[in-house]
Write a structure and sequence with these properties.
Elements (H helix, E strand, L loop, with lengths): L1 E4 L5 E3 L11 E6 L5 E6 L6 E3 L2 E2 L2 E2 L1 E4 L3
Antiparallel strand pairs: 1-2, 1-8, 3-4, 4-5, 6-7
Length: about 70
């Protein structure tokens, strides 16, 4: 399970796709200008979203193994 956390102590875990229910996977993608951005992608191809933000910055993603 992917957990997103912020330095302030806020956290979010287990983001799921509302279309198919699959857990979203965290990935870094490279934008045309060469910078990277974190996204959460549906493994079945439903789409992707910008990963969560807190305190004005992207939350850091980590993977927990259940």
């Amino acid at each position: 399970m992917t957990t997103y956390s912020c330095e302030c102590g806020m956290g979010v875990s287990g983001l799921n796709c509302s279309k198919c229910g699959s857990e979203l996977n965290y990935e870094l993608i490279t934008k045309p200008d060469g910078s990277t951005v974190g996204v959460s992608i549906c493994p079945t191809g439903c789409g992707k979203i910008k990963s969560p933000m807190c305190c004005g910055s992207d939350m850091v993603a980590s993977h927990n193994h259940d």
